[in-house]
Write a structure and sequence with these properties.
The chain has 211 residues and is an alpha+beta fold. 41% of the residues lie in helices and 14% in strands. It has a single domain, classed as NADH Oxidase (3-Layer(aba) Sandwich), CATH 3.40.109.10. The structure holds flavin mononucleotide.
Length: 211
């Protein structure tokens, strides 16, 4: 359903603006339909083209599918996020790779020496990886929706605990857990509807100044 007609400035049809933003909702619970690795791969093949600083691409994805891995993930979720994560067709731990600089010779060959400079600057790498992984996480939400999927992003979890468990000995650091499904559905026993009532958004005048 189109909330609005698309303003003529948009270069995408109103249905696309609805699919990825205006009608799309944050989803707590899903019908049982499977979300395949191939679907996520197709989404990655598109969203990887979104810009990041120095073309660093620090986003990493852990697709949590097996019952064992799901149990481990759920133990790190905040209480209010446990049941939704338990019931989701797929959960993706979205992470930032502290060692993103290792790929810079391939990703940013025009910046000779960037890898070596960053190798000695862990605090800078921490900030850059987190900032740019969050940016890519936004692209990922839009990409998943463009593939007709529904997403419930969550930061309510014990990130150090999750990292020590699922990312032990690696340079990956969790930033968001995203539950993903094919269709929203109210689930018995979850205690929350598939989506909460839609809340207001700020207007252009609230967020923008022209100087
Ligand atoms: C980065 C991020 C973290 C979030 N963390 C949680 C969370 O831990 N638990 C939860 O129930 N919802 C969480 N949300 C959902 C937001 O509350 C929701 O996306 C927002 O209210 C907009 O809802 P709507 O898309 O249905 O309009 C999170 C969303 C984002 C983008």
């Amino acid at each position: 359903m189109s909330i609005d007609t698309a303003p003529s400035e948009l270069r995408v049809p109103a249905e696309i603006a609805d699919l990825v933003f205006r009608s799309a909702r944050t989803v707590n619970s899903f019908a049982d339909g499977e979300v395949t690795d191939e679907q996520v791969r197709a989404v990655w093949d598109v969203v990887r083209w979104g810009p990041t600083a120095m073309n660093t691409l620090p986003l990493r994805l852990l697709l949590v599918r097996s019952p064992e891995a799901r149990e481990r993930l759920v133990t790190h979720m905040a209480d209010g996020n446990k049941a939704k994560t338990q019931l989701a067709p797929l959960s993706i731990v979205v992470a930032a790779d502290l060692d993103f600089h290792e790929h810079l010779p391939r990703l940013a060959p025009h910046m000779a020496g960037a890898r070596d400079t960053l190798a000695g600057a862990e605090e800078v790498r921490e900030r850059m990886s987190r900032d740019n992984a969050f940016l890519q996480a936004g692209y990922l939400v839009v990409g998943l929706r463009a593939a007709g999927l529904h997403v419930g992003p969550m930061t309510g979890f014990d990130a150090p605990g999750l990292d020590a468990d699922l990312f032990a000995g690696t340079s990956w650091r969790s930033i968001i857990v995203m539950n993903v499904g094919t269709e929203p559905a109210d689930r018995e026993g979850l205690g929350v509807p598939a989506s909460h009532p839609r809340q207001a958004r700020l207007d252009f005048e609230d967020v923008a100044r022209t100087v």
